Amino acid sequence: MSLLTVTRVEPLTPRMVRMTFTGEGLADLGTWPDQQLKLLFPKPGGSAFVSDSRDVSAWYQDYLAIPEPSRPWMRSFTVRSLVDGVLTVDFVLHGDDGPASRWAATAQVGDVIGRFGPSPEYARPLGTGDLLVFAGDETALPAIASLLELLPASQRFRAFVEVEDPAEEQDVPGVRWVHRSAGEDLVSVVTALDVPPSAWVWLGGEASAVRALRRHFAGLGVSKKDIEFSGYWRRSLTQDDAPTAEDLAEAQERIASLTE
Ligand SMILES: Cc1cc2nc3c(=O)[nH]c(=O)nc-3n(C[C@H](O)[C@H](O)[C@H](O)COP(=O)(O)OP(=O)(O)OC[C@H]3O[C@@H](n4cnc5c(N)ncnc54)[C@H](O)[C@@H]3O)c2cc1C
User: Which among 232, 236, 250 is the best mutation to test ligand 1's pocket, defined by most ligand atoms within 8 Å of the CB?
Assistant: First the structure.
């Protein structure tokens, strides 16, 4: 059963909480860069369990077969670490308007949620090249921090993370913190950077910022296949809301860039 039990809750900053989980099957999972998984949050009176299937299509059919009022909310998250069957996930507390954030704000040891993944089918290699550039907001910090930990000491990189204010900074060496409270924003700071076309770029975070940065780097001549990008959340839209025309166009471009 792909259920996860909370074993530790550790506030990291005012707006970020780290949780560790144990669960069946975790010890058998491999590890690779930027592991993403789906977490399932139970609705009141409902269960977080969906299916034992490991096949994504079959699992999703089982998910859709659950009547909507009791179908758990499904949200995307990043494996901060997975060691000896213990999974660590860092949750942004952005308010009570999302079920994942709401759950994370009050979660306690012993609480149970569901998971699907991480699946090696979605593994993407870490880029190589003279310069690697990482940029994202706090939702991408778990991914950026875990990716930076994998870099050889000789690798040149620049990393930018937009957070609310200095209280949100974590001990991640090499990060240039971008503070919204000081009037800064990720796009302005990152687009001021001098980047050669040979760079490899990783982008994650609020969708319109990711989109603007992707266009910027493509405009500088960075090959689209060397720009890993993902809109992690959309302003005023939940992860259940249908994709916008821009989301769909981006998905098409992503597929096209994989075959470039
Ligand atoms: C591949 C991937 C990996 C991710 N990894 C992580 C991770 O490790 N940790 C993490 O915390 N998040 C991560 N995210 C982002 C997370 O999935 C979204 O923030 C998600 O919307 C949270 O769900 P929710 O139920 O709290 O809010 P939803 O129900 O999806 O949204 C409710 C409202 O909250 C707003 N909202 C959502 N997220 C934010 C935010 N960060 N700041 C301000 N407003 C917001 C929406 O615009 C909407 O109005 C990841 C996303 C992806 C696609």
Answer: 232
Q: How far is the CA of 140 from the centre of ligand 1 (A)?
A: 10
pLDDT digits 0-9 by tens, 134-190: 999 999 999 999 999 999 999 999 999 999 999 999 999 999 999 999 999 999 999
Q: What is the mean pLDDT of residues 70-89?
A: 97
Nearest residue CA, atom 32 of ligand 1? Answer: 98
Backbone angles phi, psi at 82, to 5 degrees: -140, 100
> What is the arrangement of strands in the sheet containing 3-13, beginning at the earlier edge strand?
73-78, 36-41, 112-116, 3-13, 16-22, 86-92, 81-83
| CA 239 – ligand 1 centroid, Å | 7
Domains of the chain by range and CATH?
3-118 (2.40.30.10), 124-258 (3.40.50.80)
**Of 163, 233, 254, best ligand 1 pocket probe by most atoms within 8 Å of the beta carbon:** 233
Find out whether the peptide bond into 196 is cis, omega within 30 degrees of 0: no
In terms of C-beta distances under 8 Å and separation of at least 24 residues, what long-range contacts does 49-56 make, across chains too? 49/1, 49/2, 49/3, 49/114, 50/2, 50/114, 50/116, 51/2, 52/1, 52/2, 54/119, 56/116, 56/119, 56/121
Ligand 1 centroid, distance to 232 Cα (angstroms): 6
